[in-house]
Structure formats: C-alpha cells, structure tokens
Amino acid sequence: MKNPIRLALLAAFAAQPLVASAFTPEDYMAWFNANQSAQPQFVDGDVITYDKADLIRPFTPAEYQDIQIFEGMEVKIKDAGDISPPDVYKKATEQFAGTATIASDGALENYTAGRPFDPATFKPGAEDGWKMAWNWNFRWQLAGLSVGEVHWVWVRAGGEHSGHEVMSEAGGKYKPFYTGGGSFERVLTGPYRRVMFSHRSDLPETNYKVNNGEGFAKGTEFREYTGFTSPFDIAGTAFLILRYDDPRKSDDSWAYIPSLRRVRRISVEVKSDSLLGTDHTLEDFYCFNGRPLEHDWEYVGTARTLAVARSRNANAVFYGPNGWAMLDDWALRTVDVVKQIPKRSNHPYSLKFLHIDRETGECYHSNAFDKAGKLWKIWQLSKLWSEDPHAQEQVTNWKAKVTPPGTRFSIFQSINVMDVQNNRGTLVPTRGIAAPATDLDEVKKLLDVNYLTEGR
144-451 belongs to which homologous superfamily? Predict the structure, then answer.
C-alpha cells in the first residue's frame, strides 16, 4: 500500500513556489532526493489538469514546474513504448563491452563504437561522471541530423504574439504551432546540419568510420553547420564546428559574418556566449554540445521524470501563459542525472544538471546556475520517434530527406530554453528534420570551411 503521508510530504515540497533568484543546486537536489521514493499516482492515458497537478510535481523537475503547471494545463500521460536504439548499436555495445577506458585526465580511450559504459553499474561521483559524459557523447546518432528550417523564437513572458509577422507568414502555416501567450520579440530562421564521421555503429565494414576514416573524414568525430537566412540583418551568418576524434584536441570553429564578408575563427569562449542574442549558446545544443574535457563531471544518480520522448505531433506545439510549455504526450522516463562543472573560470555557468534517458541516451531536461549559484536557465527538449508515421510528415511538408526505416532514432524536434533571470525564453523548434545517409560529396559542399561563404 502506498504511504499517504509520504505522498503528502512529497507534494508539499514540490508545491513550493519557485523563486528563480533563490533557487539553488541544493534546492534541485532536494527535489531529486524526493523523487527517489515517489510513486506515480497516474496511469497511461490519464490527462493531468491543474486540479490534479500535484500528481506530476514529484516527476517534473522543480525548476520546470512553473512552466508546466498552470490554469488550463493539459498533460497527457502516454507511455513511449520501446524506443531503444537499433540492433547495430546494441551489437556494437555488446561487441566492445569492457574495452573503453577513462584516462587520468578524463579522456576516453580504446573506444570503437556503441555505448562505451554500462550505466547500470554507475555510482555517484566523478569516476562514473566521466563515463556518463562519454555515454552521452556517443549516444546513438546514426549519421547525424539534417534540419531544413530552424526557428529561434524570442518569447518575453506576458503579452501576446498574434500580431507578429511569423503568425501570418506563408499563409499562416506556423500559427497552429505557437498558441498561448508570450510576446515575440524576434524570430531567427536558418538550416542546421550535423554529420557523424567516426564511431559509427552502422559502418562496421569501414572500420566504423565514414570512408574508412580517410580524406575529408580523417581524424573527425563530427562537423556541424548552423546557418541563418533571416531576418535581413543576420542573413548569411553561419557557424561551422569541426570536432576532432582525438578528445584532447580542441575544436576548429569558424563563423562567416556577412557584414565583414569574411570567415573568422572563433574561440572556445565564443561557444559559451549567447548565440546572436538568443538565450542559447553553441555549447548548449542538445543539452550539451561541448568538448567533455573542458568540464568536470559528477554522476548524481537516476530519477524518473516526465518527458516528451515520443511526440504525438509532427511539429512542436507550444501553449501556456507565456507560450513556453508543450502541448504533447508525456512519458515517465528513467534518466541518469549528471552534473557538468565548467573548468574555465570565465565560463558563464557554475554548473548544469543534465537528465539523460537510460534507454535512448537523449537529454530531456537541463538547468544551469550562474556564478553566484542561482538558477539562470532551464532547458526542455522534445523528440520525434523515427518509426512513427507522423514523423514522415516532416518529409512531406518540409521537403526533408527520408530517414531510413529501421533507424530507431529519437529525432531532435525542439530545444527550448527559459532564462528565469531575464524572464525570456528562446524556443527552437525544428522542421524538415531527417537523419539521412551520409553523402560525402554533398557533405563536403556544406561542411568544408572553404565553401562556408558560397551561396550565402
């Protein structure tokens, strides 16, 4: 029998209002500790409304509750089913189990493909924090990700956005996605592409590398392109990151600035700065997109959280008083929690907590604290499941390339960040999403720095 007193205490703790300036890592850990013994009082198919909100507080990160819970909320509980990676990734994980090691500086060594370490063996602390960081880095990603259109929507709390130009653009096709309140201050648009070159579980015949690790793919973990086509004052701006396969080798990163008509190298500090005035940074992509060795890592433990792990929508749908919440199916997921602690003294964050799905390796929630240890930013991410029919609407409606059947990929649908100190969010839904096979000739045209300015 469930203990009603314990449930009442958990709900009472979780129901405390969030004051951003006062919320600390200790407050987050208090929620995490309460989560350990919380028992769900909902079942698959339940729709949680405001009058029943206490049922989901123990499973909603404390810092996210003010966004998720409001008058008019509608959180549908829906089990995500089997969303495990494909057999090629599982086979590589089994084949190379026990071979990967962590060096004294945290670098991953003797790794080939698959999941480097078994999280079921992890215990709190730095040693398994490094293992978790590398598991995250080498989660199942197939060939990478192609996005035809990314919106970067700056949404100020309060007000409304019905009069913003994006709501009537292209015959109003975006209008169904941005419901609720919030004032739109600016909307940036552009494509995104990331291609994985090494440790590819799907390429055993070429030593788990694109082109057997030769030519354009030599010594490369991935290349990543982030471009902007509007508004006019940033059109043509583009960023290119080359991540080396050597974990100790710093990235090569470049930016094309149209007003200067030239490509410039960017430093590691720039990747943790605001990206063109948004609340995101290049390092924040996916929850964390930086080099693991530029941070320290601590494994915290497991939690069970509600997440949009298998969206019912082809495109992200936002609602709520400030337009920051997601109207979707929410699945109860087991996540591994890891703490990221930047090494650089001039890094803007003192630490972040990342929630990484035990089954898929994907991140659903994260938070960051400023140098004073106060809550600064909250991230929430949603995923499409590649095998769902409505995921193919991305191909039909947004001219994406086809994601091969059987990919079993949690496709990146949106990453949304709320700056609680600035009372503003940046919503980043993606459309025209696919995980296409690698076409090396095509990749060279987009991801070679020598071509960074062409056609832009």
Answer: Lipoprotein localisation LolA/LolB/LppX (2.50.20.10)
